Amino acid sequence: MGYGTRPGTLGHTIRTFWPDDTDTEIYLDSSTRPTLVEIQQKISEKWPDAWAANITFESQEINTDCLGYDLYDPSDWTNFIIIRRSNGA
Q1: Which residues neighbour 55 within 8 Å (Cβ) at sequence distance 6 or greater?
Q2: CB 65: neighbour CB atoms within 10 A?
Q3: For residues 51 and 89, is the Cβ–Cβ distance under 8 A?
Q4: Taking the domains of the chain in order of start, what are their residue ranges?
Q5: Would you tell me how many other CB atoms lie within 10 Å of the CB of residue 49?
Q6: Separation between Cα atoms, residue 2 and residue 16, nearest integer Å
Q7: What digits encode the pLDDT tens for the residues 60-81?
Q8: Is 75 exposed, middle or buried (0-12, 13-18, 19+ CB in 10 A)?
Q9: Where does the chain show beta strands of DSSP type E?
Q10: Number of other CB atoms surrounding residue 80 within 10 Å
Q11: DSSP code for 82
Q12: Most buried among 9, 13, 18, 87, by the most CB within 10 A?
């Protein structure tokens, strides 16, 4: 989805961001609480020939709402599970 906007209060426009999957990365919103079976299914769908040795997992908090505002607001951030596939064996 990338960058976008949504209406704010008093006629302001609020900038937003949602990461896109790439050839080597899958972004899962951790608030959906995916099960291991669901994660394995996503990996198999995207990379049918992937091996466990090629897959890494990381968690990251990404600013997805109200971009550019100076004050930290935890509701403007989303926790993601990032699944990465490396090219090596």
Answers
A1: 43, 83, 84, 85, 86
A2: 16
A3: yes
A4: 20-85
A5: 7
A6: 8
A7: 999 999 998 778 889 999 999 9
A8: exposed
A9: 2-7, 13-18, 25-29, 55-63, 77-85
A10: 21
A11: E
A12: 18
**What does the alpha-carbon distance between residue 65 and residue 30 come to, in Å, rounded to a whole number?**
16
Give Cα 69 distance to the centre of its chain: 21
d(C-alpha 67, C-alpha 79), whole Å? 16
- Cα–Cα distance, 55 to 39 (Å, whole number): 12
Neighbouring residues of 19: CB distance < 8 A, sequence distance ≥ 6: 1, 27, 62, 80
**Residues 10-63: pLDDT tens digits?**
878 899 999 999 999 999 999 999 999 999 999 999 999 998 899 999 999 999
Q: Give the span between the Cα atoms of 49 and 45, in whole angstroms.
A: 10
Tokens of 1: 């989805």
With H, G, I as helix, E, B as strand and everything else as coil, classify residue 12: coil
CA dist 28 and 7 (Å) reads 25
Place of tokens 């020939």: 49
